[in-house]
Amino acid sequence: MRKEHSAKLHILRSLSDGAFHSGEALGNELGISRAAIAKHIKGLNDWGVDIYRIQGRGYQLAQPMQLLDEERLTASANTQVELISVINSTNQYLLERVSESDKGRVCLAEYQAQGRGRRGRQWVSPFGTNLYFSMYWRLDAGMAAAMGLSLVIGIAAVEALEKMGFEGVKLKWPNDIYYQDKKLAGILVEMSGQAGAAAHLVIGMGLNIGMPDQQPSIDQPWTSLNQVSNGQAIDRTQLAIHLIEHWKSALEEYEMTGLSGFVERWNRLDNFLGRSVKLLMGPREIYGVVKGIDQQGGVVLETESGLETFIGGEISLRKHD
Ligand code: ATP
Ligand code: BTN
């Protein structure tokens, strides 16, 4: 996989200085023809990179691009970190390696060819502009504890963003991060392991940072962290390091004390607290006002029949104005 993409990655590194590079110069650097360069540029467009060509000058990136810095990542994160620039899915990569992984192992990518969300939905993952990463964790308490874990990870992510100065970022039960009622990031917890035994979990997050404007395949309102920071430059490497650290310490706390220390923290950050929502559960729709989460991580609604708690992976929450 890595070798196959090395020409494209080389071209990107050259273009990331922001200047024009002629097809001929790029071809000379790589020892390939101008036609082969043109083909790679087309492939980069398919990865979601916006590159244009001006006759007589060559190729240029439409937006500046700062690639993730593997050296800084591995030196600063207090866990095993791998950067695989082009991958199918960082969750899939770690799921295939659970038996040989230590807790806390992380995989990051610049581009996912098959990034996924819940229930097989696609996670749009253009190259070099957002964050896509996953962490392996083992829960000796077994699968039952996995529900709480997706909440804990969301809390840790928003608190990390707050520490870095991003304000107004919120949570949507059970696994999304929102800003101004739009989806900023999604969390996906997947597991392998039999009931009753320790659960092998892979927790993945896709966080939009500078997503290009046109995204026809996203069918709901979405946003990017550069909207939160008012266009101020964001150091993706530094952000990844902070998120990884916060995740690890939140997971350690969760293992020791369960959800108890997290309920208040969730409720402070809940985007829908006190608001009318509907829950979609297969064919059923339930309307109510969000009251927060309970000690098990279920969402509590005030419905026509009083306070009711809902929990389970098949539930989707939607706002209801
Ligand atoms: P729920 O789990 O409540 O049904 P959801 O509709 O957000 O939430 P998920 O499966 O969690 O569904 O997330 C996948 C959905 O997220 C996709 O169907 C798409 O609409 C949207 N999506 C895909 N890529 C992105 C992205 N990069 N940024 C924001 N939203 C995205
Ligand atoms: C969702 O909202 O449905 C969750 C989206 C999770 C996307 C991340 S990106 C890194 C990791 N690898 C994947 O294929 N999915 C998760």
TrEMBL record:
Residues where biotin binds: 89-91, 112, 116-118, 183
Catalytic activity: biotin + L-lysyl-[protein] + ATP = N(6)-biotinyl-L-lysyl-[protein] + AMP + diphosphate + H(+)
Gene3D superfamilies: 2.30.30.100, Bira Bifunctional Protein, Domain 2, Winged helix-like DNA-binding domain superfamily/Winged helix DNA-binding domain
Residue intervals of the BPL/LPL catalytic domain: 66-255
Keywords for the protein's UniProt record, in alphabetical order: ATP-binding, Biotin, DNA-binding, Ligase, Nucleotide-binding, Repressor, Transcription, Transcription regulation
EC number: 6.3.4.15
Molecular-function GO term, any one: biotin--[biotin carboxyl-carrier protein] ligase activity
Keyword Ligase annotated: yes
Pfam families assigned to the protein according to its UniProt record, in alphabetical order: BPL_C (PF02237), BPL_LplA_LipB (PF03099), HTH_11 (PF08279)
InterPro entries: aa-tRNA-synth_II/BPL/LPL, Bifunct_BirA, Biotin_CoA_COase_ligase, BPL_C, BPL_LPL_catalytic, HTH_11, Transcriptional_repressor_C, WH-like_DNA-bd_sf
DNA-binding annotation, residue ranges on this chain: 23-42
Class of this enzyme: ligase
PANTHER family: BIOTIN PROTEIN LIGASE, BIOTIN--PROTEIN LIGASE
Assigned protein family: Belongs to the biotin--protein ligase family.
UniProt xrefs under NCBIfam families: birA_ligase, PRK11886.1-2
Function: Acts both as a biotin--[acetyl-CoA-carboxylase] ligase and a biotin-operon repressor. In the presence of ATP, BirA activates biotin to form the BirA-biotinyl-5'-adenylate (BirA-bio-5'-AMP or holoBirA) complex. HoloBirA can either transfer the biotinyl moiety to the biotin carboxyl carrier protein (BCCP) subunit of acetyl-CoA carboxylase, or bind to the biotin operator site and inhibit transcription of the operon.
Protein name per UniProt: Bifunctional ligase/repressor BirA
This protein's encoding gene: birA
